Amino acid sequence: MLFVPGDSPERFASAWRVGADAVVIDLADAIPPQNKDEARKTVRSWLEATREEATREEATREEATPGEGAVWIRINPGELGHRDVHALVGQAVTGVCVAGTASASQLAALATVLAEAEEAHGLRLGSIAVAPVLDTAAAVLGAAEIARAPRVSRLQLGEAALCDQLGVELGPDEREMHLARSLVVLASAAAGIEPPVAPLSPPGMSPDAFRSSTEALRRLGFRGRACVDPRQVAVVNEVFV
User: Fold this and answer.
1) Structural domain count of the chain
2) How many beta carbons lie within 10 A of that of residue 169, not counting itself?
3) CB under 8 Å to 38, separation ≥6 — which residues?
4) Are 183 and 140 in contact (CB under 8 A)?
5) Which of 48, 92, 97, 201 would be 74's cystine partner, CB 3.0–4.6 Å?
6) Going by DSSP bridges, is the β-strand pair 22-26/129-134 parallel, antiparallel, or unpaired?
7) pTM: predicted TM-score of the whole model, two decimal places
């Protein structure tokens, strides 16, 4: 899953060219509150243009070609995220990543908003998936309940914020996060959802260290990895064959 800021439209389409399975357009932490309305308009315009282009290509070919991949949007919990949902859900969005997920009840409220947006846009009820991002100690300890919340397809672990809260400094083997990672893997399996997506790497990690880290996360039960550096996508694809 390759994350791109929601106010950088020049990076949206280019994200596909590096082979990501999903592009996640970040409307949460990457966008200051005063810029969110403009970012929503930018993302909506790009999604509309992309959908129209795909429709034209399909209509002019004898055999439809596969789509480039899934488009997710990363949203804040609560009202800010609900505005993102109403603005963008009708534009071929696969799902929403919920930054700073705190509880299953929070996700239940989001599920109601998603259902309203699906109905408004003529979409099948339940078609938009949810991937909560667990980035606090409380969220990790509540992972079993969060994994069973409505629409949750898989969990993500937000390690940067979690490490800050815990005062943890990752060493070369990252064993400091082993318990938190295992709890998220266990919660996913117990709830019968997809295995979790591995977290973003710390800033400045070397290519060799990134590969070693990704291989360790695969062995631990993660499937796929969140990236912000397009150069990391090829490594993730090789590790998670």
Assistant:
1) 1
2) 8
3) 7
4) yes
5) 97
6) unpaired
7) 0.88
